Amino acid sequence: MSENIDSILQQEDKEHSRDVEIERILGAFQLDAYSVLALQPGCNTEVIKQTYRKKSLLIHPDKTKNTRAPDAFDKLKKAEKVLQDDKSRERLDSVYADARTVLIREKKWTIHDERLKGEEFLSEWKEKTKDLLIERELRKRLAVKAKMEEEGRMKRKLEEEQEERMKARLEQKAWEDGRDTRVGNWREFKKKGGDKKKKRKLLG
């Protein structure tokens, strides 16, 4: 009986741990892969692999009834992919480095200040990194929007030019198609004019 209770309690404890981790992952800032995996910047590739494996096994949708597990698992997987890609990780590390520099400058500290190792600074560092990541994402989206708008303007311009060319071709075709009619009308006009002159001569 005691063993059954212990087993049930252990299972409940595991489920609780899964639920807590799922909520933590879903609440982590999406643009910061380190935060999603609960890692510090600068960690090596092996640590990233081990952490991802441990957390993915913990929250895997097949191991829990939590309906939010698939979303958390997907977010965790994307974060791991970012950190395993050299260029993506380099960009993220660059933002972290910029955030650290900005904070040190704002606080008027030196790079050797012992307070840089404290939990308070680490927390502020993550928040500053979050701010810079948001700014970068906004600039990126604005650039994409501007590019799309420019492409839209170019497309409309090309369509207008194409429409003008089509209109000119149709007008040219209409002019050419009406040539015989115009020539016939002119001949008819000349003919009628000639008859009138002859009649005036006869009357005179």
TrEMBL record:
InterPro entries: DnaJ_domain, J_dom_sf. Residues 32-96 form the J domain. Pfam families: DnaJ. Residues 144-171 form a coiled coil. Keywords: Coiled coil. Gene3D superfamilies: DnaJ domain. The keyword Cytoplasm does not apply. PANTHER family: J DOMAIN-CONTAINING PROTEIN SPF31. This is YALI0D21428p.
